[in-house]
């Protein structure tokens, strides 16, 4: 009786812990500034509007394509080159 109670408590604790631990980790997708899971011209338009201070909100972590700590026109140029397949990988290191 005591043994089955201990097992029940351990199972309940294990279930609670499993709920608290995230089951999926999302990898950073450089260039996906609108968080739709793709890198395409829609991201370039959003990044351009952000750089021009149009009041748009973007994922700035995914937008810093040269990892210099800033999101600016350099990142926009890199994104355009990536979309046009002029460069192969992001983040871009030159």
TrEMBL record:
<dbReference type="InterPro" id="IPR002105">
    <property type="entry name" value="Dockerin_1_rpt"/>
</dbReference>
<dbReference type="InterPro" id="IPR016134">
    <property type="entry name" value="Dockerin_dom"/>
</dbReference>
<protein>
    <submittedName>
        <fullName>Cellulase SS, extracellular cellulase complex subunit SS, cellulosome subunit SS, CELS</fullName>
    </submittedName>
</protein>
<dbReference type="Pfam" id="PF00404">
    <property type="entry name" value="Dockerin_1"/>
</dbReference>
<keyword id="KW-0119">Carbohydrate metabolism</keyword>
<keyword id="KW-0136">Cellulose degradation</keyword>
<dbReference type="GO" id="GO:0004553">
    <property type="term" value="F:hydrolase activity, hydrolyzing O-glycosyl compounds"/>
</dbReference>
<keyword id="KW-0732">Signal</keyword>
<keyword id="KW-0624">Polysaccharide degradation</keyword>
<keyword id="KW-0326">Glycosidase</keyword>
<feature type="domain" description="Dockerin">
    <location>
        <begin position="26"/>
        <end position="92"/>
    </location>
</feature>
<keyword id="KW-0378">Hydrolase</keyword>
<feature type="signal peptide">
    <location>
        <begin position="1"/>
        <end position="27"/>
    </location>
</feature>
<dbReference type="GO" id="GO:0030245">
    <property type="term" value="P:cellulose catabolic process"/>
</dbReference>
<dbReference type="InterPro" id="IPR036439">
    <property type="entry name" value="Dockerin_dom_sf"/>
</dbReference>
